[in-house]
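Lecture 7 notes: from sequence to structure.
We start with the chain below.
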Amino acid sequence: MKNGCLIVNLGSPEEPTEDAIRNFLRNMLSDRCIVNLHPILWKPILNGIILKVRPHKLIDRYQAMWTPHGSPLSVITQQQCAMLQEALSHVDVRYAFCASSPTIEEALTDWDIDDLTVIPLYPQFATSTVTPIVTRVIDFYDALACDKKQSLPGDSTVRGSKVHPHLHFVSSYATEPHMIHWYQQQIRDLCATVPYDHVLLSFHGVPDQRYHCAAHYKAQCIATRDAIAAAFPDLPISISFQSKFGPGEWLGPSTAQRVTELPAEGVKKLLVATPSFVADCLETLEEVRLDYRDHFLRAGGQIFDVINPINADPAFGKTLSSLYRSVQKISPSTSEFC
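Predicted structure tokens for the same chain:
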């Protein structure tokens, strides 16, 4: 049996230009799981306002964080893929992005495998992140199966064949031990040099429009916090949510608000980590390291330190390989997803 493993992240612009940023935003914000508005209402806003204004506002930030090899997220995802491939020598490992190339469909095309495990690079499940990945993988193979079945006689089936491999999905891994221990060690090492008053875990925000889904996501974020905090009974560790986009209510409290409030609460030395991000990107390199630091210091804070995402640390290679080994024989139904 030929086994495959696909790791998937959101992606990033192909290059730091306004056109590339516009294409990336169009791909990302056209997904109904991300923006839950009817296209008749949303497309005029997207095409008439956002895609005309946002690329110009973002270009300086993308150019500032760009590396000689591409965007940090793209480079790190490739490193994560290579790391997992080394750990799973008997498995063909590939990577894909939801909103840039290689797309999920490009990664799956002409892939000669019998069994596929898909690992979204989002530790905490959210409808806006994991559901599109599951849907696109299933839709891709169902379309192939439909085309193949039309060419077969009688009631021949192709599910489970090389046209439609057996599929397994990792829905979440909010408390995966290797990842949790890595964060605990980062906090432990930094606290040995700086007596922090508080640790703030900043998770990517999600709209609060679908209460059950948002509550489920927040519960997983709290589980991540509780698992990390178990090693530090005397150190205050709280959570917040960042990267709010557009109107409407989002999960709170917001990171932008909390970093301005904490100095008045006596927090002068703050350590921030971003456990929902497994690779550096615009949100970690610019929003957290620059914007939130500025907010905190302007509000009276003294020290603002940041723990990098787990990126291509060997601990994340162990996380991914452990996830593959534990679930590749178990295929959860999509009904289990929020």
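Points to note: The chain is about 45% helix and 15% strand. Strands lie at 3-9, 91-97, 115-120, 166-169, 198-204, 237-242, 269-273, 303-306.
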